TrEMBL record:
Protein name, per record: Alpha/beta fold hydrolase
Region annotation Disordered: where it falls in the sequence: 111-132
SUPFAM superfamilies per record: alpha/beta-Hydrolases (SSF53474), S-adenosyl-L-methionine-dependent methyltransferases (SSF53335)
Domain of life per record: Bacteria
Alphabetical list of InterPro entries matching this protein: AB_hydrolase_fold, SAM-dependent_MTases_sf, Thioesterase, TylF_MeTrfase
Gene3D superfamilies given in the database record: alpha/beta hydrolase (3.40.50.1820), Vaccinia Virus protein VP39 (3.40.50.150)
UniProt KW keywords: Hydrolase
Organism, scientific name: Nonomuraea diastatica
Amino acid sequence: MSSVQMSSTMPVLFCVPHAGGTASSFAAWRDLLHDCAEVRPIELAGKGARTRERPYASLHDAATDVADIVQEGAAGRPWAIIGHSLGALIAYEAVRVLADRGQPPAQRLVVSGCPAPRHRPGARSNDEAQDEEEVTRLLQRLDGIPSEISDDPEAVSYFAGLVRHDGRLLSEYTHVPPAAPLPCPVTVLVSTEDPITSGKDPADWELAAARPVRIRQVAEPGHFFPVSNPRQCARVVRDEFGWPPAPGDTGSGLYLDLLKRTLTNVIYEDPPVPSEWSHGRAYDRVNRVAGLDWPSRAHTMVGMRRLDNVQACIERVLRDEVPGDLIETGVWRGGTTIFMRAVLAAWGVRDRMVWVADSFQGMPEPKPGSHREDARLNTHTFNDFIGVPLDTVKRNFTAYGLLDEQVRFLPGWFNDTLPAAPVERLAVLRLDADLYDSTMDALTHLYPKLSPGGFVIIDDYFLAVCRDAVYDFRRRHGIDDEIRDIDGYGAFWRRGY
Ligand SMILES: C[S@@+](CC[C@H](N)C(=O)[O-])C[C@H]1O[C@@H](n2cnc3c(N)ncnc32)[C@H](O)[C@@H]1O
């Protein structure tokens, strides 16, 4: 975002997360709405960056805190607020607190994934469950356990405790109908298949708002749709606020959207190949979208959100005219690099290359000098699956009509190919080779070629070996650019100017 765009008239959109959620639930919204609003996800006390703070004693406490944050953060600028699930009620009450203080009203309040308050008192509904096991079961049913902790019983139990506390805020909350209409327009955002709101009339929010409300729908299964499908939510939000459609919502954007669905194959739903971390044998949409399974046929295993991130990074360097090509080190069937080429095609870019670097025979066997964790992991034992020949990757590019002179292959082990690779400058450097040595090789030989303002994307940041390589490299080179989470698994940073 340039300082010109971030003008004092650009509205601030505050976002309040769901029960147990952190500010990162709205992380993807920043890029999706960057041209219309400054998105500010709110961290609630006791969560995320505010873990050490005492959690709220009541929902009204939470609303007062959010009102303080909004009042200080808006600082005279136009503002709006969206809250999801529990966050919707907090946002609603915060709007009332600010009205009582005589503060300038919001441009709009968006209450998302939340039944109207009249459905609360006395009716102990699903998300008010008190018992921790019950909460865990409910979260499992709603796919509400963050993927990065789902295999760690202690972390799941801690998380369930947080949600249980939030559930108590909800069950102890008493709604007092307003004496006057809310001072701002209200939109109720629901999803077609949300088990929490299903059967409850969204128009009942009119009683709580004391004014007519607008009702908007997204077509996304599950309760956590602002996280699982931020793009579609952002599209609706743009429309509600009268903001222009994103480039992604027009012809070329729809092409890229379809391509992401095709490359991850959320369309024909191929089953996964059983692996150490994904035991299910049936196709599971949540795993596929999150890039947590090994697809038997799809052309990428990185999932939808990490492809969204690839798109956002490329579009950002194009917009900011950051010079350089795009590269992925570790491409498997080629899906992510096919998508990189497609983004260039969608924007009519002819002067940048996509570099496709891989052994095209799988992971390296550990050697005497290999990092000890790489040696322990023995990932080469999966090479029957991980090793994809160069011809197959080229055929995959061809299948999408995207194999041309803007695609260059670097076949071989990174420590052989990357030191002398004929890559001059890079704008996006994407690493997806899992291991310490492979990550370190790519950073060592390619990071010096990354332009200031370019992006480094680490697909496997969640894996300790890979993260160690990133930390060691950054420490050695004094890099302190902020690392940003993508989807709880991958991360990225932007090289400082
Ligand atoms: C997890 S897969 C990449 C997934 C891919 N980015 C996608 O979109 O689905 C890891 C890839 O890294 C490659 N790889 C790992 N270490 C390597 C090395 N040192 N040299 C060359 N290729 C390597 C493997 O051959 C494999 O194709």
